[in-house]
Every structure is written in structure tokens, then in C-alpha cells.
Amino acid sequence: MPVQEREYDIILLGASGFTGRLVAEYLLAQYGIGGDLRWAMAGRNEAKLESIRLQLQGYEPAAPIPILVADTSDASAMAGLASQTRVICTTVGPYALYGSSVVEACAHNGTHYCDLTGEVQWMRRMIDAHQAAAAASGARIVHTCGFDSIPSDLGVLFAQNTMQEAHGVAARRVKYRVTGFGGGLSGGTLASMLNMMEEVKQDPGLADVMADPYALNPQGAPTGSDVNDQTGAIYDEDFASWTLPFMMAGINTRVVRRSNALLDFAWGEDFNYDEAVLAEGKGALQSKITALAMTAGTNALSIGPLRGLASRFMPKPGEGPDQETREQGYYNILLHANHPDDMEKDIRVKVSGDMDPGYGSTSKMLAECAVCLARDNLTVSGGFWTPASAMGTRLIERLQQNAGVSFTVE
């Protein structure tokens, strides 16, 4: 069936999970059901889906949310699901365990796709395996459509657009600095991180892929001078503050660098990008001790028995904070764009979210990505894209209008 004639605009896969329910809740509140946006919920357990529908709509709604039953372990079921919709929006992770069949089905059926993965090694596998099929079918495959990596990817795009408008040049370096952060940890993100470590244990060669600053760039594309992500405390002259490692940098930086490559190196082949947390109010010694503790904690998770012990105390996939915690959460990020020739022309922008990053804001960002892919007149053809390279300023507009994410010039 041609894409424009399919029964649904969006199928939300994994709607019975914690984050999936939040996405469904947002779609219902923002776009309704039975209106212009045709969407459905899908998952492997019909009873759980019906329970979610009951929670969202109550008894005997005039227009019930359609429910579709399909298991990601069934490739033919995924192909059938993909053939019914313009977009599959999935929250079923870890994606390295449960996402490959979905990507394959979308790539071969011309179905657009978005997810919340931060699994670099899996994204690399999917790009290599299915880029040709997606390009041929017209499917736009877009990973990392949540807190990792939309604030990074679109924040850099916004900063670069601002620099171009003000000075007619691209910034050759952008620094991403987290200044404030509140909310619950994502069980799905943690599960994905632990699964990545398990994969590295089984295949040590994956460590080289994950350590490569340009791991997600198109094969054969030029690489710049960026090196490993920050692990210690570093003083940043532009912010007049010490900085600490940021746990999501290993994902976000690679997505931003891929965006630059997919945008025909609009920011230059020598573009530099890094991420860190501002240690505001902390001196050198306190910052260095904090950084050492953070690095030690990360290294401890690479040890199998310690990883197993830690997982018993971490949030599990499908678990998350209550509504009050989500609504009281927030994040504030500053991005400093260095003018290539004149530091007096440097530009600083801010990205902020009005809910906790791991659940409240992420669910709204993912939903708007799905709507953008389904509805908007995007210029890119089929293939594997990033949020910035596929949806760009149109997605920035959507997030500001609907999802409580703001992009402002400081």
C-alpha cells in the first residue's frame, strides 16, 4: 500500500511500557483520536494495551484508541505493522535486544521510524545493514529522538543558524554545558547502558566502535580533530567555570558529528564539539574529586559482578517517577558557539525543558518527532538521519509550540 494511503499516520509501539504510556497520553491530549492525526497503540500484550486505553480514555469512549497486537520477536508481524502506517514510533528497548526487526521492517516497507535509543553500537549496525534498503524505499529512519540527543543535536543547529544569521559564518566549535537538571533516572536508558557493557564483554571489538568520536559518521566521510569525551575536571575559559564529565556525551557528540556530515559539513570538516556539566561554585580540588568519583563509578559498571549488583538498585525498564516528580523536573543547557575569527562575536544559546528529561520531556519530544515525520513536508529522502538533519528547524518549531522545549539566544 502506498505510504500516503496507509491506515495510520503513526503506530506507537511499546505503548504499555512506562514511557510508551506517556507518549500515548501526550498524543491523546495534543492531537486527540478520530481526528486529523490517525494513530494507534501496539504491543505484544493486548490486555495491557486495553488497560492503558482504559486509563487514558475511560469506559466506552466515542472514539477508542485503536489497538494492534504484535511482538518485536516476530519479523513477519513487524513487517505487517510497518505496512499499515506512515511512521512507527517505538519505545521498546533496549533496542539492541528488541529493535532490530522493527528497523528492518520499516526500511523495507518505506515506513518512517523514530526511537529513543542511545546505543551507539546498535545504531552503527542498523545503518550498515539497512541504509541501502531505506534509501531505496524512502523510509526515513531517525534514532535518538529523546533527551539523547535532541537538546544536543537541535541545540547545535540552533546555535549554528544563529551564528550564520548574525555573522554569515559557521562556528568552528560549539560547547554544550549542562547548568541545571532535575528529575528521575530513566530505567530504559540505564538498561541500554548495561546492555552495551554486556555486548562489549561478549565482543571486545565493540569497545573500539564506542570509543570512536566519529563512530556514527557515514562510512568514508572525513573526520575532524575531536577526541575522546571528557573524563576529568577541566576549566572552561568561556564559562569561567570548572566542568565535569557528562554521562550522555558519548552518545550525543557522535549524533551531532553525524548531523554535520549529513548536512554536507555545513559547519566545516574541522568542526569541534564537546559536552560537559558546569561545576558552578566548585573550585579546582572539589571538581577534580567529583570527576574522579564519577569516573570510578562508570568504570565499576564495566565489571560484571558489580554491574549485576548495581542493576538491582537501579530503576528497571518500565519503571519511572510519579507525575509530580516528572512535572517538577527540568533541564537547562547552554551552548557556546565560537566564532572562527573573532571571540567578540561568539554566540551563546540556551535549551530548556519544562519537565524531567528522562520521561516527561523525552516522551513529548519523541511524539513530536513522530508527528513531524508523518505530517511535515520534509526535504530529505530515505535513509538513516539524525533529528537535526531530517527535521531541523521544523522540529524546533514544533517543540517550542507544543512540547515545552525552548531554544533562546542568551
UniProtKB/TrEMBL annotation:
> SUPFAM superfamilies, per this entry?
NAD(P)-binding Rossmann-fold domains
User: So where does this one cross the membrane?
Assistant: none
Looking up Pfam families in the UniProt record yields:
Sacchrp_dh_NADP (PF03435)
Q: What is the lineage of its organism?
A: Bacteria, Pseudomonadati, Pseudomonadota, Gammaproteobacteria, Cellvibrionales
Using the record's annotation, list all stretches that form the Saccharopine dehydrogenase NADP binding domain.
10-141
What InterPro entries does its record include? NAD(P)-bd_dom_sf, Saccharopine_DH-like_oxidrdct, Sacchrp_dh_NADP-bd
Name of the protein described by the UniProt record: Saccharopine dehydrogenase
Q: Coiled-coil annotation: which residues?
A: none
* Superkingdom classification of source: Bacteria
